[in-house]
Give the backbone structure.
Amino acid sequence: MHKQRSGYIRQSSMPAQRLGRRANTKIYMLRRVVFIIAIVLTLAFIGKTVLSFFSAEYVSLELSGNMHYTDLQIYDALGEQLQNIVTDSEEQTANYLKENLSYIKEARINKHVMKRLLTIEITERDPFAILRFDTTADASVDRNSSFFLVDNGGHVLKHIDKQEIGPLIPEQFREMVVIQTRVDEIPQVGDAIKRSEVILGLEVLKTALFRERELATQIKSIDASDSRKIKLQLDAFPVPVWLAADTIALGLHHIALFLKHRKTEVLKLIQDSSVEVEPYLDARFQDTVYLGGLVENE
């Protein structure tokens, strides 16, 4: 009887032990949660103290790399948002500058807390071409066109007044190539133009500058609205030149050679021609350049 009673007692003590372990586990977890919360609150207090020490009221700004914008213009752009910008992450500050100042391509931000100094290293976009947007298919330069300055990636840097494109065109725009496109909606400064004819036109110009520098200096405008017949207008050459998107580099090379050796001859043929159809120089073929529009159809 004693053994049976003793065995019964040992079996009944096991649930009590399990309950004790569970209670200890809960207490341990509760202590950990309290400890973690205390750490978070402490770090938050320290962060708030540091940020208040790094208050915009006492922070100095140090700028570098800004060629287009003056220091004052950048300060004005920061404006009333300076307090938030100081306490935001470096990436947020950089994005804010890029969104509000179209010439800024990259901005590297460094915060020096003890010095209360915010340094901003700026990389600006370079003007590359003039983008002409025609609002109708038969638009004229004077009445239905808008002009924008863009970089080599099609990022709109500024709007150009029509008066600046007229006879008294400023020196800063005089040598720039005009990329033509037709749209219903005019872009905003800061937009990145993704239209295929704009990207293609810029690619033609970049290829010409890289491979045929002398020819590139003669290009006045590019119309790449038809990738099978890209039209180039050259300086001191009254004939439009045609290219194809799949043979840009080769076509530019053929044009450069053709004009170098036969430009005078071509100009004389055009002058002596009595055909009313507008002549053109076709460089879309791999092995030849074709002067069209000078022979009347019988």
About this structure: The longest strand covers residues 104-112. Confidence is low (pLDDT under 50) at residues 1-9, 137-143. The CA atoms of residues 50 and 113 lie 8 Å apart. Helices lie at 2-53, 71-78, 82-87, 90-100, 171-174, 196-211, 213-216, 248-272.
